[in-house]
Amino acid sequence: MALPIYKSDDNDLMLMQTAWAKQINPIIASPLNQGVLLKQVSLVAGDNTIDHRLGRDLQGWQIVRLRAAATIYDKQDSNQLQSRTLVLNSSAPVIVDLYVF
After folding, report:
1. Residue 96 in contact with residue 27, Cβ under 8 Å?
2. Range of the domain at 40
3. pLDDT tens digits, one per residue of 49-71
4. With the CA atoms of 22, 25, 31 and 33 taken in that order, what torsion angle do they form, in degrees rounded to the nearest 10?
5. Residue 44 lies in a domain
6. How confident is the model at residue 2, as a pLDDT?
7. Does residue 66 lie in a domain region?
């Protein structure tokens, strides 16, 4: 997705649109802005496979809410289905909110 540029006979308007697009398009294209918030994901102690719903390879993830003490890390290097799932290992049962991108 990119900022649309509308055709106009007004040269100043065209220059402004081009300048805005150069500034805004990198922000729009950032993977962080194309993520999904997964709420109340239940993790058990050990490996957990989560459908990330991105429809593409996962580029990163972040815990945005952690409801109990737990150490969590990913096992994506060995995940054969990176376009569909995120594999997290948790040290304890916990419910989390995840932002995946």
Report:
1. no
2. 35-100
3. 999 999 999 999 999 999 999 99
4. 130
5. yes
6. 87
7. yes
Number of domains in the chain: 1
Calculate the alpha carbon distances from 92 to 9, 49, 52, 99 in Å: 63, 15, 21, 20
Residues 79/87, Cβ–Cβ less than 8 Å: yes
Q: Which residues contact 51 (CB under 8 A, 6 or more apart)?
A: 84, 85
Residue 3: its pLDDT value, please? 87
- Where does the chain show beta strands of DSSP type E? 36-43, 46-51, 61-66, 72-74, 85-90, 94-100
Residue whose token pair is 């194309």: 34
